[in-house]
Amino acid sequence: MPRRPATEEAREERRTALLDAAMRLWVEHPERVSNVSDVARAAGIAKGTVYLYFKSKEDLLLAAHERHVEAFFDALLERAQQPERMTLDDMIALTRHHIVEVPAFLPLAMLISSLLDKSVTPEVVRAFEQRKSGRLNAAGALLCRHFDFENVTAGVRLLMQSYGLMLGLWQLLGSACCSQIYANGEALSPDYLTELDNALRALWRGTLNSKDDSHA
Amino acid sequence: MPRRPATEEAREERRTALLDAAMRLWVEHPERVSNVSDVARAAGIAKGTVYLYFKSKEDLLLAAHERHVEAFFDALLERAQQPERMTLDDMIALTRHHIVEVPAFLPLAMLISSLLDKSVTPEVVRAFEQRKSGRLNAAGALLCRHFDFENVTAGVRLLMQSYGLMLGLWQLLGSACCSQIYANGEALSPDYLTELDNALRALWRGTLNSKDDSHA
Amino acid sequence: MPRRPATEEAREERRTALLDAAMRLWVEHPERVSNVSDVARAAGIAKGTVYLYFKSKEDLLLAAHERHVEAFFDALLERAQQPERMTLDDMIALTRHHIVEVPAFLPLAMLISSLLDKSVTPEVVRAFEQRKSGRLNAAGALLCRHFDFENVTAGVRLLMQSYGLMLGLWQLLGSACCSQIYANGEALSPDYLTELDNALRALWRGTLNSKDDSHA
Amino acid sequence: MPRRPATEEAREERRTALLDAAMRLWVEHPERVSNVSDVARAAGIAKGTVYLYFKSKEDLLLAAHERHVEAFFDALLERAQQPERMTLDDMIALTRHHIVEVPAFLPLAMLISSLLDKSVTPEVVRAFEQRKSGRLNAAGALLCRHFDFENVTAGVRLLMQSYGLMLGLWQLLGSACCSQIYANGEALSPDYLTELDNALRALWRGTLNSKDDSHA
DNA sequence: AATGAATGAGGTTTCATTCAT
DNA sequence: CATGAATGAAACCTCATTCAT
After folding, report:
1. Which residues in 38-77 of chain D line strand F, with CB less than 7 A from it?
2. Does residue C58 reach within 7 angstroms of strand F, measured from its CB?
3. Are D and B close enough to touch, i.e. 3+ CB pairs under 8 angstroms?
4. pLDDT tens digits for A5-53?
5. Low-confidence residues of chain B, pLDDT below 70?
6. If you measure CA to CA, which chain C residue comes closest to D33?
7. pLDDT tens across D20-37, in order?
8. How far is CA D159 from CA B42, B185, C59, in A?
9. Residues C157 and C176 placed together within one structural domain of the fold
10. Are both C109 and C10 inside the same structural domain?
11. Fewer CB within 10 Å: N-end or C-end of chain A?
C-alpha cells in the first residue's frame, strides 16, 4: 500500500478500495451500516485518511451508490450501441445482472433515498441528480434505436419506471427475505425475481402497446 | 393532561397523539429524523412515557408507517365494497389522496425499508409483513369485482406493483425536490405526480390488456 | 389477597410477602438486583403499593437483609438457651444452616454494605446498626455460658469476627463460583465451605487458646 | 494536555490518571458512585475518551480495585523477599498501610463483589480472579520463609482468611462510620482498627499454634 | 388502602469528525 | 499525505418514585 498516492490515478485507486471495502462489509453485515472505522480498516488505511477521499460518510455511501448506477448504465450503453436489436428479455437480463444481483445495490439505494433528505447538502444532491439524469437521458435516447417508442422521452420514462419498480418491489418482497438470503449465502429470493419479471413485462407491454392502441 | 388513561380507548388516543406528533415533526423538519425526546415533547408527555406505548424508536416509526398503510387500505376496501365499478382513475385518485399527498408517507416508507434490515427484531418484522400482506390480499381480491383480471392473484400483483412504482419513482423524482417542496409549503412536485400517473397507467394497461393479447 | 390489611398483622404479612418475593427473585436471577416492579408483581401487588410498606427500594433490601440476620440470631439464641453445652461444631453447623446455605444471604449482605454508604439516610443506618449490635451483644453474652471466654466481650468479638470471615471469604471464594452454583442448581461450593470451616476453627482456636497461652 | 499519547507508557499514564480521578471522586463523594462523565471531567479528558481505555464503567472500577490489590501484594512480596524474618506485627502493619488506610480500598472491594455477579462478563471475572489467585499463591508461598507453617498452603490460606476478615469486619464496623469519617476528614475509625488487630492476631495464633497443639 | 400510568433524571455508549503529530 | 487518539454531541433506554384516581 503506497503511502502517498502522488498521482490522480493512485488517488482513484484508493477511492475504489474504500468503496469496495464498504460494499464488502455491507454484504458481510447487512444488518447494519458499517462505521467509518471498520470501512477504513477493511480498506487497509487509517480512519482519518477516509476524509481525505470523501467529505463525509454520506458522501462515501453516495459514491458507492453512484458507482452501482454507473456500472449499470455503462453496460446498458454498451449493449445499446451494438447493432443487433435489443429485446425486452435483453433489458431484463441486463437489469438482473447489474442491479438485482449486485448484493448491496438495492438496499443501498433505499438508504440513499433516506440520506438525500437529510445529512447531505443540497448542492451535492443536485450534482448527483444531474449526473444520474444525464446518464438516464443518454441511455433512454439510445433505447429508441431498439424499441418502437412513440417518442424519445418514452425510453427515458421506461427506464425510470423500471428502476422504480425494481426498487419499490424490493421493499415489499426483498427486505423480509433479505436476511435469509444473505444468511443462506444463496442468490436472491426467487419470489422477488419472479414478481419483478412479471411487473417489468407488464410495464413495458403497457408502454409499447399503447402506441398500437392509439392506432386502433 | 389526564394522568391515567383508564380505558383502552384513552390509551389508543395517546398512541395516536404520539404518532401524530412524530409525523408533524417529520414534516416540519424533514432534514432529520426526530429523536424520541422531541417527539415526546411535541406530544406533551415525558420521554419515558413514550416507552410505555412503543418498545423503541423504531417501533414507533414502524407504527407510524403502518398507520399510513392501513389508512390507504381502509379507503381502498371501503371504495371497493361499493357497488359501482371502479376505474383506473379511481385507483389513481385513491392512491394520490392516501399515499402521495400524505406528506411523510413515502419518505417514511423509504426509511422503514432501511430500518427493517437492522434495529428491528425479526419477529416484529415478520408480524408487520404478515399484517401488510393480509391487507394486500384482501384488497387484491376485492379488486377483481371491478377489473377484468385473469385471476385473483392479478389484483394482488397489480397493487403490489403499483405501490412499488410509487415508492421507487419517489426516490428518483420525489426526494430531490422533497426538501424544497416542504420548505415552500406547496403541494407535491408536479413531475413526480405526472410521471407516476403515466407509469401507473402503463402498468395497468399492460396487465389488463395481456388477457386480450392472449385472445388474439 | 385482602385489599386492605386493616390489622397490623395483615400489614406484617404483606411486608413478609414482599421480602419473600424479593429474595425469590434474587435466587432466580442472581445476575441482577430485581427492580421494584418485578418484586411487586411476584408478590401479587401493584408497584405503588410497595411504597406503602417500604420507604424505598433500599429500605426493602435492608429489611430483607435484616430478616436474614434476625433468623440467624434467633436460632443462635434458642440454641444457646438450651442447657447442653455448645461446641464449636454446633456453632459452625448453625452458621452453615442459617447463613451460608441461605441462598441470598451473603451476596445481599455484600450489596447492603455498598448500599449503606450511599442511598440510605444516616438515621436508618444507625437504627439498623443498633438493632444488629443489640442482638450481637445478647448472643455474645449467652455464648459465655458455653465457651470458656476470658471475658464477656470475647463472645461478641468472636461472633463478629466469624461473621466477618464468612462474608469476606465469600468475596474471594463464593462470587466467582456463584453463577456456576446457581446454574447447576447444586448446593454451595465445597471450596468455600471447606475454607470457611478451616478459617472459623483457626479463629476460634486462636481465641479460646489465648487464655491458656497467657496461663502458661 | 497532549492529544496523542504516542507511547505505550503515555497510555499507561492516562489509565492511571483515570483511575486516580475515579478514586479521588470516590473519596470526595462516598455517598455515590461517580458516573463516567464525572470521572472523565475530573481527569481532564472527554467522556468518550474513557471508553478508549476501559471497556465499560465496571471495567474501570474493577481495574481500580485490582490496582489496590496489586499494590498490596507488591509491597508484601517486596517485604517477604528481604532476609529479615517477618513478624505478625509486620504483616499487620503492611495490611494497615496498603489496605485499611487506602481510603477507597475496602468500600470499593465491597462494591466489586456485588459487581462481579452482574454487569461483568464471566471471562473478565475469570481473568481477574486468576490474576488475583496468582498473586495470592506467590505471596503465600513466600510467607513460608518467615512463618512456621505446617505446609505451603497454610500461607495462602492465612492471607486469604486475613483479607476476608478485613473485608467482613469492615462491613460491621467500617461502613456505618465510613461517611462520618470521610465527612470529618479524619483518619479511620479506631474501633475497626482495634478489632481487626484483635481478629488477625487470633486468626494467626490459631493457625500457627495448631501445629504445636498437634505436637502436644 | 391500592393502583399503575406517568414521570424525567440519570446513566451508558457510540461514532462521525477533527487535528496535532 | 497519513495517522489514530481524542472529542463530545447525540441518542437511547431504565426504573425508582409519585400521585390522581
Report:
1. 45-49, 51-53
2. yes
3. no
4. 457 788 888 999 999 999 999 999 887 889 999 999 999 999 999 999 9
5. 1-6, 175-190, 210-216
6. C118
7. 999 999 998 888 888 999
8. 61, 77, 35
9. yes
10. no
11. C
